[in-house]
Amino acid sequence: MKLSFSIPSKSKSKPKPVADKDQSDDNNTKQYVTEFDPTETLQPQNAQTPIIQPIQNEYRPHKKMKNIDLPLHPDSSTDLCFERETLSSDPAAGASDSISFGLNLRHSTASDSTQTQEATVEDVMLEKLRYDLKRLPEHRGSEEFEEMPVEDFAKALLKGYGWHEGRGVGKNAKEDVKVKQYTKRTDKEGLGFLAASHDSKSSNKSSNFSSTNGNGNVSSGGSVTVEQRERERNKDGFFVGKEIRVISGKKENLGLKGKIVERLGLDSLVLRVEKSGECVKVRVSDVAELGSTKEEKCLKELKELKIREEKKLGDWDRERKPVNKRSVESRESSKFGNDGIGKERGVQWLRSHIRVRIISKELKGGKLYLKKGEVVDVVGPYKCDISMDESRELVQSVDQDLLETALPRRGGPVLVLYGKHKGAYGNLVQRDLDKEIGVVQDSGSHELLNVKLEQIADESWQFSMESVLVGSSGQLRGLTHTISKLGHNKLPLLPSLFPSSTTTSTTPVTFSPFRPFASRKRRLNKKSSSSGLMSKMADHDQAKVASADVVSGDMIFQPILEDGIFRFDCSVDSRVAAHPSLSFINSKDRDTPIVSHSVPSYTPAFERVSGQQIVKLEFPVGTSFYGTGEVSGQLERTGKRVFTWNTDAWGYGSGTTSLYQSHPWVLAVLPNGEALGVLADTTLRCEIDLRKESIIQFIAPSSYPVMTFGPFASPTDVLKSLSHATGTAFMPPKWSLGYHQCRWSYDSDERVREIARTFREKGIPCDVIWMDIDYMDGFRCFTFDQACTLLDDRFLDKFIVFDKRERFRDPQSLVKDLHDNGFKAIWMLDPGIKKEEGYLTYDSGSQNDLWIKKADGEPFVGEVWPGPCVFPDFTQSKVRSWWASLVKDFTSNGVDGIWNDMNEPAVFKTVTKTMPESNFHQGDEEIGGCQNHSYYHNVYGMLMARSTYEGMKLANEKKRPFVLTRAGFIGSQRYAATWTGDNLSNWEHLHMSISMVLQLGLSGQPLSGPDIGGFAGNATPKLFGRWMGVGAMFPFCRGHSEKGTNDHEPWSFGEQCEEVCRLALKRRYRLLPHIYTLFYMAHTAGTLVATPTFFADPKDPGLRTTENSFLLGPLLVYSSTIADQGIDKLHPVLPKGIWLRFDFDDSHPDLPTLYLQGGSIIPLAPPHQHVGEANLSDDLTLLVALDQNGLAEGVLFEDEGDGYEFTRGGYLLTHYVAELKSSVVTVRVSKVEGSWKRPKRRLHVCLLLGGCAMLDSWGMDGDVLKINMPTEVEVSTLVSASEKQYRTRLGIVTSFGPSFCPLIDNFLTAECAKHIPVEEEISGPKGVELSRVPIELKNGDWTVKWLHSRVEIDGYEEYSGIEYRSAGCSEEYNVIE
């Protein structure tokens, strides 16, 4: 009798492990019994090792995997033959229909001779699949080997091929095969990963103790349940019992390896060290999994550091051994030669102001070992004086051999000390510690230089001006340019450099003759030699602390305003001393605590050093950062640093760190999709440092509170909460959402009328025409040009009158003509008031003492467009009322909107581009009282916009004001829209415009947009058309260009570009009901209008860096910002779910692709020429996209489009729903709000099917409308036909055949879109485009230099160009050789 069984249960046909009879003497192996036979003697259990037999080759068992002989000519000896595999089974089909896709091997049969029809492709493939499935051996599975150790499993496999222990494998084997188990771990998953729970040895050694995991559950004996482990793993992967390594944090803990024994909340854990057994507390962010890339990187760096230290210690110890006098003399002789000058000692690399590390334990008794410092002076060929970082101790006459250069972090500034590229200055873009080599990008030529790491050093010679020149406030004076004093050894005193600045004390700096000027490539004129000083914004990461008074700790909190909002302060005293909030709607809301039982999820840490308050918040790895206000560059801000200091930044670049507005706000999106906002509520210059992953750091003068909003379930919830504090956007008049046309400048009313007439003649929608400063009389605000004085571009410091005639004779008549043609008029007002007696505005302000004062109490006078100007002090309520009254009177001329420009405030002919920070404002007590300009600088533009807004409201209470401001602060959305400033006509700025608009929205300002086509320089037709395509979808849509460039109206670039612009703007006007509804929701609920694509799925990390698409509610706009790639050449990246493409029969390669999210309904209108053409009785179209459940919903807001009746119920808010049941889609009204009655109008419902296909049905608005769904075959035919039409329009060659439906074929006869021709880049007039070479600007005995078209100083960057247009630099530009 035999008894058979299997472990676990499997088919009997499965090969079974059998005993190895040749190794019966092996007592260390296990025997797996699957068949019991009483006739055979059972071997001892540990006497044999199982054998896993290999799968035999079914074709030629005696030949391993050889190619089989193919029977190309079937004969009687075989029944195998080949046949063609074809697409058609029709024997009459032509050759083109019977193209073979390969050969199928099959057995010939007697029926072949009578077969008249070949098998179809599907039949052939199906039969081949069945045949292959029969041939496949049954999968063994791995269950039966789960209990087998890895070593035994490997032995069993090898024995199947004839291997025996002690013998080699193969004919020429000389030694036995060694079987070893490798337990190297990878990251959290993947090949070779072994969870800590599988380590039986470790689990047996666990101590008997009780620990609390992250969920608050108690686990005894050091073990955790599977459910607990899963919950921990779902959070951050660090569960109790897991082995980890410390990779950062305290130095004494670096490199420690151990097992987690306890979780202390979400941020900390207790680690039992493997060797010592002691327990240490570490932060989750300071540890990494074993085998992860972070752990490997840490071990590699520790090993390199150890090797380097041992090597240099050995060299130093050998040099310091006692020797006799003759040995010393011999060594000195060999080093210095007979004359004492270094000849054979080696390369002399010491330079002043480079950073070094001491590598000798002998110096100062070893207390300075491995400490860093700065070389402050080179006192000999191989000797220098060093200022130590921590102690500020000055160590003199340190030998070069006792030092090594300190390397910056990747991206930091370095100087090449010797070698082929000696003297080159740039950034360290790559380094290899194994090979001791690196790559430096030269800051002048941008060339990549290969260097040895020993040849470069962290260059800190461009030290901060505040370490040399300190005023009464102890703050940096805002200098931004490289200043070289030519021909002198001492830096001139500050007043001689900048007469407009005032300081209490200055100290000249003497440069040692042994301190060579660390020149950059092509930076200085070869004919001159100089010493230099670089002024910069302070880098607080490496700040030199003069005082030992450092206070640090966790900030204290109190809940404010509503649940989920917390205020943090350094102390109770700091909370009491904090200035009033200018960002909050009501400052008292920030200062009044509420009763709440919730506690903050993240608590900031602070440090106060030398009057600066540093606040740091750490988040989980994988957190993404957004916001920071008006910033250029990438959408996701990790790795970036900005400074909140409103700056006139003409021609800014992707790395410019200070633009026109300040928003000390960061939106953090956590890895799980939740979000949290952080606001540093200070008006002073603030550094927002996001260069370290998952860490937010604010640095600003003490003291200021920090507010956190959340974490909430989504980013939208965070921004709603922010709006409750800082306010929602003002409700714009509907006409302001149309297209705006602007230029600097339409210089006469005749030209304005011509522009308006051309728009209507060409059928291009437009609502607004703008008047720049040339409408004024000599650039005097609140005046109109009766005898215009024009400014010649060749001269800034003089007014050249070359054309004198009445250009704006009758502004009221002009406005009337514009209104009659459906246009609104917007006029500019700047803050600079011309200092001229007899000028009514100046006289009025002077009589009432309304100007900003200098430190001596006299009104500050700065030069702007009119010449010498004074500036209203908008921090005073009486000044705001005065300005509002002027605006009220000005509006009576028919002004529809006002444009506030130059209100950073910008000042000409000063390097700082603004007024001195020592100026003072006599502010109201409720906003901060009397303060210097550094306190009010960032809010000056917002306060001016507020005054303008209030003045327009006074002029007509029945009209909504429209104000556009260039400068702003967080909260300015309550009063004004904004734009992204003086951008450039290039593809980079087109791409950046999307991210910049989104960042402003994420910072609370939803009404913004760029200058479409670019302000500076000449756009090409392709660039302008592409920019108009995406710009027509922005919340604020305006084309604008500067003087001296070609015309930039939509018809200025040829017929093809004109047609693209027409199609783009018609799209916008069709979507205006949807856009207007979004603004109503933004005004009432604090939601956004335009959002990043990842808002559709915040949990998807792949969407967080998408920059060429954005959302308008459920509408996704996908565009191309690449010059040589239209939308037809891109593959869209869409969020998860249903996204249905649609168009208005207007698809074009240079227009964005539109998608509607499943489950959504959006309203559409006819494409009017201007908003005033619209009527409530117009047909209403609803675009419907069903979700996976057959449901959809949407909302439409309607009111008069202007005025404030909507605040009193005078509106209609309609909620529409659609539902699919039994192949019928029903569309109806589900909810109505407001007192308006529903207009009598037709309703047109378009149901999207995909691929731009749709079904439509007509009815009356308010009635239930039903649509019968076609069959799946009919839907497929419609989608296929629509897809063909779409591809034809884009000019894509399709392979679609006829639809077999004449009606559809006739309907889909579509013409290919006319592509915009590609032209060479058009350069603007001389000086308009950015300079491509270094620029030097001289003024007396000082020089300002621009390098590679920009000044970049420790992260602060400004571009050169025609700086007089914004900064007022009138001196001649000289190109440096």
Automatic annotation (TrEMBL):
GO terms for biological process: carbohydrate metabolic process. Pfam families: DUF5110 (PF17137), G-patch_2 (PF12656), Gal_mutarotas_2 (PF13802), Glyco_hydro_31_2nd (PF01055), GPKOW_C (PF25088). Residues 1-10, 203-225 have a biased composition (Low complexity). Keywords: Nucleus. Residues 1-62, 195-229 are annotated as: Disordered. Residues 150-196 form the G-patch domain. It is found in: Nucleus. InterPro entries: DUF5110, G_patch_dom, Gal_mutarotase_sf_dom, GH, Glyco_hydro_31_AS, Glyco_hydro_31_N_dom, Glyco_hydro_31_TIM, Glyco_hydro_b. Belongs to the MOS2 family. Belongs to the glycosyl hydrolase 31 family. Transmembrane segments: none annotated. This is G-patch domain-containing protein. PANTHER family: ALPHA-GLUCOSIDASE (PTHR22762), HETEROGLYCAN GLUCOSIDASE 1 (PTHR22762:SF120). Residues 40-56 have a biased composition (Polar residues). One of its GO terms (cellular component) is nucleus. SUPFAM superfamilies: (Trans)glycosidases, Galactose mutarotase-like. Residues 17-28 have a biased composition (Basic and acidic residues). It comes from the Eukaryota. One of its GO terms (molecular function) is carbohydrate binding. It comes from Dovyalis caffra.
